[in-house]
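Progress against Task 2.4 (sequence-to-structure conversion) is shown through the following example record, which the project officer requested during the mid-term review.
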Amino acid sequence: MYINKLSLRSVLFWLIFCLGVTLISNWPVQAVTFEPPAGDAPKQSNGGASRDGGQCFSQAKTNAAVTPLTPDTHYGLTVAERPTFFVYLPETGAKKMFFSLQDEDGKQAYQTTLPLPEKPGVIGLKLPDSAPALEVGKNYKWSLVMVCGGELEPDSPGVEGWVRRVAPTPTLKSEKPLEASLESASELAKAGIWYDALSVLAQLRQAQPENLALSADWKELLESVKLDGIATEPIIK
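Structure tokens generated for the chain above:
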């Protein structure tokens, strides 16, 4: 009798084990793979590197520089009227930053001065409702400059990037905010919509900071555009 019970338990254990393996192997996996869009970037889209930090970073404990989260062309697409731009900020002695947005002709579309976060990490800068909506089919240059002293200086460290708003595909409607789901992030990345794919994935990570799968997706997405050095840095508010 004891042997029969033991055998029955063994059979049940293996059935449950095999069922679990089957469920895991068939569990839907949504990769977030960025596919660069076709078409030429703006001729001036090569200014993403940070300038010398000077007094801003003299006391910093890291060698990382201010880094825009953009593809290596420093150019990306969006379907949003007012997208979010992401930048990695290292430890710094600066207290504020200057953000601006210009059209391709150099006309100022929006500018503001913002306080810097207390901790290093990746920040998102969303255009507010007070900023004019980006026009479909137009390129814009955005820049972020650290204010190290009382005012901006010619050698103030900063970064630049370019963005172009495009009309959404049938699966990427713009009448309402994009749903923050792994599926939408994947669809955006596959369509080459960099800024929005990054924004959706950042929302998911902030909502589920302990989700290792989302952290891995974020890391893989950044590494795909040669941002290995900051792929594991935290997202801060």
